[in-house]
Amino acid sequence: MELNVINIEGKETGKKVQLNDHIFGVEPNDHAIYLDVKHYLENQRHGTHKAKERGQINGSTRKIKRQKGTGTARAGSIKSPIFRGGGRAFGPRPKDYGFKLNKKVKQLARKSALTYKVKDNGIIVLEDFSLETPKTKDFLTIQNNLKINDKKSLFVLSEANKNIYLSSRNLKGVKVIIASELTTYDILNASSVVLFEGSLEKIEGVFNN
Question: Taking the domain 2-46+98-208, which CATH number applies?
Answer without folding.
Answer: 3.40.1370.10
